[in-house]
Write the structure tokens for this entry.
Amino acid sequence: MAKKKFVVGCFDDEAVLFPAVKKVRTAGYKIHDVYTPFAVHGLDHAMGLRETSLHTAGFIYGITGTATALSSISWIFTKDWPLNIGGKPHFALPAWIPIMFELTVLFAAVGMVLTFCYLCQLAPFVKKHHFHARATDDLFVMVIECTDKTNTDDLQAFLSSNGALETKVEVAEDGWWLGRYDKDEMPFEEKQIVAA
Amino acid sequence: MASLRTQFEVPGKMKTWSYALIGLGLAALLYGMFTKGFSSDEHEQVHFWGTLMYNTIFWTLICNASMFFISVTTLAQAGFTQTFRRIPEAISTLVPIFGAITFAVLLYIVFGHKHHIYHWLDTEAVAADPILKGKSGFLNPTFFVIWTTLTIALWSFLGWRIRKLNDEADAAPMDRETSEKFIHRGTVRTAMFTVWFGLTVGSTVPWLWMMSIDAHWYSTMYSWYTFASSFVAGMSLIALWVIYLKNKGYLELTSQEHLHDIGKFMFAFSIFWTYLWFSQYMLIWYANIPEETVYFKHRTQGAYKGIFFFNLIVNFLCPLLILMKRSAKRNYTLVTFMAVLIIFGHWIDFYQMVMGSLMKEHVSLGWLDFGILAFFVGAMILFVGTALSKKPLIAKYHPYLKESVIHQV
């Protein structure tokens, strides 16, 4: 966990946000993330994010579920505790398929939800820094990661000239940490707020 | 829209190919008809008429699936179909043609052929058999003919009304009020088709036409199974035509986004088909009642074992594994390959559904099957091509066209 310096720019219009994202990227700045109140179609594309691998993970979880069901049922019914059920063979594959299906779905669903939460750094008793409270309401909040050489004043002016309503510099934790929103203190300091 | 190529012209090569396939098919059909269909050997007769029957039913149903696709997407107010909607429309113009052939074949089987294919036509056997007696209200020639006539006539008529309505979107721009009225009329007309489709393919017709070959056996899953089979093959046929026209430089407004959605239908309904396949099989396997297992006995343990499980691999495992990835559904080559495979797979499925009951001892798949298949493929290419060339490829004043053009998956 490390504190980093960020420049935050707030936009209130998708039509302004998209060209701004493009310009910030071509100018060579590293966009940490763009926080939006709702899913914005095509924004991942504009930000140059790669395709998620969540579905590949889901496939692997599913296959694991199938394998778990098949191996455990076949071991139970043929080796551990063979039962005569209606004169069917001990290895009664058709009867097991619904259970294999159920476990596939269960593993895939639960596994994907947990993976998704991990990737988004969401969990109970865990906190993440909010760069701007209105990102949950009506503003698109673009957060740019600074390096040693970044001139924050220039960058703020650049964002404002590209339509940002509000810009600020923040030193903040970029990951998650143990804590609760209703109790913890903010482990960052607000430096300055420059109105556009 | 002047720059769009909306007028399809049937290429000479396509005509040549379709005539060649039809010629080949007719030769096989006529040769089969005289050596087998009219021979004195009962076994040969059953071979010929059974083969002709499953082919006609298969092609009628998959062409009708196009109209069902139009209907459900219209009812769901789905806009994405508009850029390629003329393709399912053109495919569905085949319903009256293939329907008439099916009707003729079924009539011949019921009236000309006595009881070699439909055991329930044998009045003496029915009188002595409590099970068949119980079914005689449904399985009798009068009901069969009336219901078959109604089925094919209404499919054709209701489908024609839906196509005719959509022609209005070619004529002139619509204001808001006209558009709303147009959408409402489309909803009513497609709802009528969907209801009739549910009463026929969704329930009675597969029981009547195909399941009644095993007159004692019954499965309520059977019609849904047939529907799933024909619908997924029908979607594949639409995909093939979309890709063909794209290759020829038409359908500029149809993109990978639309192909992706068609691919999703192919993928999803392959899984749905498997669900029904398994549900039908598992319950019968589990209960193990002789009068029910009779259908699966020679399919899972007899001569049809190979075809039966090949069917499952082609229609379930291949679509599941190959079409699962997003990039596969957006790849023209892969979708073409899978569409051909799925149509072939479900043709084989219809083959084993009908011939598996008629010729239990040995698998009859051979020149006759592929010859008749060639005839239907040729006729399909010819008639769909002609139908496409008669109308603009895009109904340019349709209220949902814009939604379809900017469609994004």
